[in-house]
From TrEMBL:
Cofactor: FAD
UniProt name for this protein: D-2-hydroxyglutarate dehydrogenase
Endoplasmic reticulum in keyword set: no
Gene3D superfamilies documented for this protein: 3.30.465.10, 3.30.70.2190, 3.30.70.2740, Uridine Diphospho-n-acetylenolpyruvylglucosamine Reductase, domain 2, Vanillyl-alcohol Oxidase, Chain A, domain 4
Organism superkingdom: Bacteria
Length: 464
């Protein structure tokens, strides 16, 4: 199909004003936050309804087109990159929130609804949407579902998967499916909804989702602790978690915090220094909750696990303490970091992290290594910073060389090569370190059932 014919056919579906081919749009909508692949889409199309998405998919099957979904483009695995002339389906205009149900505590969202938009809407209803992360101001619900996004509250409220009551999807064949119909209990065989959650748009595109809400937490309080030894981080986690219901338990290294503090807009939490820091969040509903947290802190100090700490006394102070952790990704972005998003069961974190750190430090003596992550659920973010003088064309191949050794350690500990960022293109080669040969064969078979012509986000997650 010629480019002119493609534009004409797409315009007939969505309108000429909802198809773009200008260079700026192709560059913007053809990529995500990764910088490994150059975006080269053929066109960007902006549907407004599920039926329009279906018609786009049917056109793709008819004419041999390939489609890439685009949400907030905050992904870190090149799952939303169109690098081979694909048509990008952008969900920005499918951003309506509707059908709030106060009894069921659910709300219907278009795939293009921004995460923060849903959080604000829930708050206006006196409720709470708990899936939260640094990109909440730009990430979209459809993308969150496609990658089963996690974030900073998983230890208490789980992943996106736990909050999806129902889905409307368009499969790779162009079928519209209504999955689960928002039911809490539905024991009628295969839950196809779960295949699309975390499926990265390879089976079909989510166009609408019914999301569950919950009661808002009360008086969230933040405690930041300086911890000299890695093993002691897990001892602190166990000490607090055995007595309190935590809403977050985050971890970051001294190097990570130093980068944030160097910008000058976030104050240091205290004068003491340590190799590692933990951020603990909990509900201080009563004075007894605060007293318990102070008692647990004192016990940690007495045991030598903690050398200093600070607890928030206001929402403003709590927000500033959170910035020590949440500002890390934005702060280090200027160094074009090579990222790994890996996980193991929580009890294995110390030896797992130590073994990887030894390999990376040995093989990258001239690279700066930044560790942080959601250690309370076993999820660690390894970031290798690019030296200013080293071109990315040399930097990424050097990182890829050592990634194989990192993934071998992940496999040794029965961990995951991607805890929450998805697989996309950047991690596809490493999938066998987490999934068996038989599992991958079944995944490919599922892909073939829903998308036999491989039109839906090709080249991501698994190859046909």
């Amino acid at each position: 199909m010629t480019q002119d014919a493609l534009i004409e056919r797409l315009s007939a579906i969505v309108g000429s004003d909802k198809v773009r081919t200008d260079a700026d749009s192709l560059q913007t909508f053809g990529k995500d936050w990764t910088k490994v692949y150059e975006p080269k889409p053929s066109a960007i199309v902006f549907p407004k309804t599920t039926e329009q998405v279906r018609d786009i998919v049917l056109l793709a099957n008819e004419c041999g087109l390939q489609l890439v979904p685009s949400g907030g483009r905050t992904g870190l695995s090149a799952g939303a990159v169109a690098a081979n002339g694909e048509v990008v389906v952008a969900f920005d205009y499918m951003n309506q929130i509707a059908e709030f149900n106060a009894v069921d505590r659910t709300v219907k969202c278009g795939a293009g609804v921004i995460t923060e938009q849903l959080q604000t809407y829930a708050e206006e209803q006196g409720l709470f949407y708990p899936v939260d992360f640094a990109s909440a101001g730009s990430s979209q619900i459809g993308g969150n579902i496609g990658t089963n996004a996690g974030g900073i509250k998983v230890i208490r409220w789980g992943m996106t998967r736990d909050w999806v009551a129902g889905l409307t999807v368009v499969t790779g064949k162009g079928d519209i499916l209504q999955l689960n119909k928002d039911l809490l209990k539905n024991n009628t065989g295969y839950d196809l909804r779960q295949l699309f959650i975390g499926g990265e748009g390879t089976l079909g595109f989510v166009t609408e989702a019914t999301m569950r809400l919950t009661r808002p937490p009360k008086n969230l309080t933040v405690l930041v602790l300086a911890i000299p030894e890695l093993d002691d981080v897990m001892k602190v986690l166990n000490q607090f978690q055995s007595s309190m219901d935590l809403t977050a338990f985050e971890f970051f290294s001294d190097k990570a915090m130093s980068k944030v503090l160097a910008r000058g807009d976030v104050p240091a939490p205290f004068e003491s220094n340590a190799d590692f820091y933990a951020l603990i969040e909990f509900e201080a509903i009563t004075d007894a909750d605060m007293d318990l947290s102070m008692s647990l802190f004192e016990q940690c100090v007495e045991n030598g696990w903690v050398v200093d700490g600070v607890i928030s006394q206001s929402e403003t102070q709590a927000a500033n303490l959170w910035r020590l952790r949440e500002d890390i990704s934005e702060t280090i972005a200027q160094w074009t970091p090579y990222k790994n998003d890996i996980s193991v069961v929580v009890s294995k974190v110390p030896p797992f992290l130590r073994e990887i750190d030894e390999v990376v430090t040995r093989e990258y003596p001239d690279f700066e290594i930044i560790w942080f992550g959601h250690i309370g659920d076993g999820n660690l973010h390894l970031n290798i910073l690019k030296p200013d003088a080293l071109p990315k064309e040399e930097f990424f191949p050097r990182c890829n060389k050592v990634s194989k050794w990192v993934m071998e350690i992940v496999q040794k500990y029965d961990g995951s090569i991607s805890a929450e960022h998805g697989v996309g293109m950047t991690k596809k080669a490493y999938l066998p370190y987490t999934r068996s040969e038989a599992e991958i064969a079944y995944m490919k078979a599922v892909k073939a059932v829903f998308d036999p012509n491989n039109v839906m986000n090709p080249g991501k997650l698994v190859d046909m």
